[in-house]
Amino acid sequence: MEKLQELGLADALCRQVDVTDRDAVEAAVREAEERFGPADAIVNNAGAMLLGRLADQPAEEWDRMIDLNIKGVLHGVRAVLPGMLARGTGTIFNVSSIAGRKTFPNHTAYVGTKFAVHAMSENLREEVAPSGVRVVTIAPGAVETELLSHTSDEQIKKDYEAWKKSAGGALDPQAVAEAIAYAYRQPQNVTIREIVLAATGQEA
């Protein structure tokens, strides 16, 4: 919340919402729509990356990622989709990952959630395409965010940081934001179905 508020954005409403709570997401969207009008777009970006070996990773971490990375996306979609379908316009952005397209060591549960985001997004796109609603999957590689800090295995965190360094560093979050803005600015009859982006030095 503090980082959002520090931006001092005009015509912005900042709310802290648990995306695993469907009713809370719905209430936040309704509050925003009452102030600014019908939702024209949503970016489902909340998520957790809890890396670990499946044999010894705490099962609670799987639950956390499933609730955030999968159910959280569904809750965001449900909050805006009926209105978009009724109006015949709107854009849904689901932020997945390159890990929604390929596998990585110590990523099994996380990869599963991101493959789910990819599959759900493409299926939804096909479902709503005739209505004029766009669905875009954003699949970044490593990005400089707090995401890795969620991982509880210190050795995996160290190895991941070393991997990022070997690739010349990770993406600036601004690059991901600009990719989303690019897709959004296309005419409503043009859907950039998926954007995959990563630091040039990231091989995988």
Low-confidence stretches: none
Q: What would you report as the Rg, rounded to the nearest angstrom?
A: 17 Å
Helix content: 40-55%
What pattern of helices and strands is seen along the backbone?
HHEHEHEHHE
Write down how many β-strands occur, each being a DSSP E stretch of 2 or more residues.
4
Shape verdict: globular
Which sheet architecture does the biggest sheet show?
4 strands, parallel
In round numbers, the mean pLDDT is 96
Q: Count the DSSP helices.
A: 6
Q: Which band does the percent of strand residues land in? A: 5-15%
Class computed from helices, strands and strand pairing: alpha/beta
Strand arrangement across the biggest beta sheet: 1-2-3-4
Taking the alpha carbons of the first and last residues, their distance comes to 33 Å
Description:
The structure is a single chain. Helix 2 (22-36) packs parallel to helix 3 (59-87). This protein has helices at 2-6, 22-36, 59-87, 108-128, 154-166, 173-184, and strands spanning 41-44, 91-95, 134-140, 194-197. Helix 3 links the parallel strand 1 (41-44) and strand 2 (91-95). The mean pLDDT is 96. It has 204 residues and is an alpha/beta fold. Helices cover 47% and strands 10% of the residues. Strands 1-2-3-4 form a 4-stranded parallel beta sheet, sandwiched between helices. The chain has 6 helices and 4 strands.
